[in-house]
Design goal:
Layout lengths: L1 E7 L2 H16 L4 E7 L6 H11 L6 E2 L7 H19 L3 E5 L3 H13 L2 E5 L11 H12 L2 E4 L2 H9 L7 E3 L3 H13 L4 H4 L8 E4 L3 H4 L2 H15 L4 E4 L2 H9 L2 H8 L2 E4 L4 H9 L3 E4 L2 H10 L3 E3 L8 H4 L3 E3 L4 H13 L19 H14 L8
Parallel strand pairs: 1-2, 1-4, 2-3, 4-5, 5-6, 6-7, 8-9, 8-11, 9-10, 11-12, 12-13
The structure holds uridine-diphosphate-N-acetylglucosamine.
The site of uridine-diphosphate-N-acetylglucosamine (UD1) has 18 residues, from helix 1, helix 5 and helix 11.
Length: 378
């Protein structure tokens, strides 16, 4: 029996861990899972709603860390996680994605010589101004098993000198959640509630510090959204950081006056899935949404200059447009003018984004576990 601590911290972690815990419970003779929530995200809308929607069991341990500067938050997770690790003595810790909780827990494991598997390893934006890029680089250096979503990630890791035997291409576990929940999301009334059930519409999400912490950049993006909203309604479920900044910069008033950009609170997993799966266009700076729109064939404009998920541009529906208002409007106009997909042709989806990644991850952990109890000497 392999005892595994699964770490969740922030919103984009929940849909990656849910299929893993479910598979571990289903394979209960091989795996004994525990869920540790660091508390990096704590609002009902940013955390509890996702446990409910995804059927994630309540966390076995909640570290209650909350917000703070990067150093404060990372250090607080480390301090709170260390005694849990010493007490539980798991065989493996699974960390996912690239948030501060991911790196903090991987670092504690490395020092205590507990083996770590990193899900979504190897993604690189090559932009070290992004806090997530630092988290990715360091987590991958510290992990014993690097579970990658696409071949570009394998190449990145090999180029950084990580031995091939630590790397396993397993596909995208977030897509397991997406395929599993798609039908249930059909019973959400979010399109009706927002008045877009019979309309073409666009969905926007923004939360990257580089886009929402600077009033000039955020104002520029809003100008583009206002122009797009002259053509189709634009629904904007806003992250708490974005809502706070919009109001601090005096921009929420401008939006409500202008009318058609609809600012709403963050949505739960099922409501958000229902909303973007019917959109004519998605505009985002999120990593995960670039992948989810690719899996469903929804046109996506990424309001960044780079992406750690190039496969969504090469194979999928994603286009990098940056934050220049003119470029955004031009790309949106082009996307809205393009003939609609008929639904006959399935979207082009990267290999292994097939809804079965969780089992491949468990197989990889099992195989590595049988290879010996100690951490590799690196
Ligand atoms: C974090 C992740 C980011 C991820 C994002 C998804 C890092 C470095 N960043 O960014 O990679 O894409 O989550 O949302 O780990 N807040 C609340 N309620 C909450 C959580 C946060 O109001 O439940 C507010 C607080 O004011 C906080 C701010 O949001 O200071 C930012 O939260 P934080 O966890 O520091 O980073 P995110 O921007 O959410």
């Amino acid at each position: 029996m392999i005892r595994v601590i699964n770490v969740v911290g922030a919103r984009p972690n929940f849909m990656k861990v849910a299929p893993l815990v479910e598979a571990m419970e289903r394979r209960g003779r091989e795996f004994a899972p525990l869920v540790v929530h660091t508390g990096q995200h704590y609002d009902a809308l940013m955390s509890d709603a996702f446990f409910r929607d995804l059927g994630l069991p309540r966390p076995d341990v909640h570290l209650g860390v909350g917000s703070g500067s990067h150093a404060q938050q990372t250090a607080a997770v480390m301090q709170q996680f260390e005694p849990v690790l010493l007490r539980e003595q798991p065989d493996w810790v699974v960390v996912v994605g690239d948030v501060n909780s991911t790196l903090a827990c991987a670092l504690v494991c490395a020092k205590l010589r507990v083996r770590v598997a990193h899900v979504e390893a190897g993604l690189r934006s090559r932009d070290r101004t992004m806090p997530e890029e630092i988290n990715r680089l360091l987590t991958d250096q510290l992990s014993d098993l690097l579970l990658t979503p696409s071949e570009d990630a394998d190449r990145n890791l090999l180029a950084e000198g990580i031995p091939r035997e630590r790397i396993r291409l397993v596909g995208n576990v977030m897509i397991d959640s997406l395929f599993k929940q798609l039908e249930r999301a059909g019973s959400s009334n979010v399109r009706e509630d927002l008045g877009v059930a019979d309309e073409r519409y666009a969905v926007v999400t923004l939360h990257r510090p580089s886009n929402v912490d600077d009033p000039v950049v955020l104002g520029r993006i809003l100008s583009a959204l206002e122009r797009i909203a002259e053509r189709v309604p634009v629904i904007f479920p806003a992250h708490p950081r974005t809502l706070k900044n919009l109001s601090e910069f005096g921009l929420s008033e401008r939006l409500s006056r202008a009318g058609r950009v609809r600012l709403v609170e963050p949505l739960g997993y099922l409501d958000f899935l229902r909303l973007y799966s019917g959109a004519a266009l998605v505009l985002t700076d999120s990593g995960g949404i670039q992948e989810e729109t690719t899996a469903l064939g929804i046109p996506c404009l990424t309001l960044r200059e780079n992406t750690e998920r190039p496969v969504t541009v090469e194979l999928g529906t994603n286009q990098l447009v940056g934050t220049d208002a003119f470029r955004i409007i031009e790309a949106a106009t082009h996307a809205l003018d393009a003939p609609r997909r008929t639904g006959v042709e399935p979207p082009r989806v990267p290999p292994l984004w097939d809804g079965h990644t969780a089992d491949r991850i468990l197989d990889a952990i099992k195989e590595k576990d049988e290879g010996g109890g100690m951490r590799d000497e690196g």
